[in-house]
Amino acid sequence: MLRGVRVGTHAPPSKRTVAELFELDLNLQLDNGLLRATTAEQYRRQFKLHAGPAFGRLRAQDLRAEHLDRLFGNMRTKGLAASTARQLYNMLSGVFRRAVKRGDVETNPCKRATPPSSQVE
Prior knowledge:
The chain is mostly helical.
């Protein structure tokens, strides 16, 4: 954290949840014309079905790779394709990449997670 303060990358602790961060990012993408409404609805369904119940109420700053890895494992245990979990990973990774860029969070937990390979079906 001190290094982040020194180099200007420290994000102050936020009470925003993962779900709130997700919605903020989606709305910004829509407002800027970077996402189609139909794609946003598909992302919302994916989030509500998988990520929301797993850690949507968790503070975004507190999300860790282990939360993501557990979710991906549970998805595979339920018989979902690795590609489905990989799509969710890609979506969340983008949300957190942009959140880091905006200064909403310090790090992208997806960078430390181990997404399922879409090659293994």
